[in-house]
What we know:
Layout: E1 18-25, H1 46-62, E2 74-81, H2 85-93, E3 98-106, E4 109-116
Antiparallel strand pairs: 1-2, 3-4
Region (Disordered): 33-64
Protein name: Methyltransferase, putative
Keywords: Methyltransferase, Transferase
Amino acid sequence: AYEQQENVVGNRKFDSQDIFVPWYFQQQYKTEGYDDDAEGGGEEEPEKEKEKEKEKEKEKEESHKFKPVKKDLVKLERYYHVFKKEELYELCNSIEEVKVEKFYFDCNNWGIILRKIF
Length: 118
C-alpha cells in the first residue's frame, strides 16, 4: 500500500507508485539442462546424468536444513506497482462480474475480498 502506518514493522516510504524491488535468482531454479559453461547442445554422458541425479537426491534430503545465502546469486529487479486505497478499490469495483465484499488494510497492505456475480 502506498499509505503506510508509521512505527510498524515493515513500513516503507515510496517515492513513486511504480518501483523496482530487488529479487535474487537462485541457482536451484535454473532450467533443467541449462549450463553456464556449455558451448553447444548435445546430450550429456550417462555418467554425468547419474551424478546429477545423485546430487538432486542429496539436495532433497538436505532441503530442510538451514542454508546460508550464496554469494553467487544474481541480483535482478522486478516491477512492482504500489496501489493507493482508492485506486485499488475503484479498479476492483469497475469489474461488472464481481462485487466487493470486504476492503481492508492489514500489515501495511491493502486487502480485498471479491465475490463473483453469476
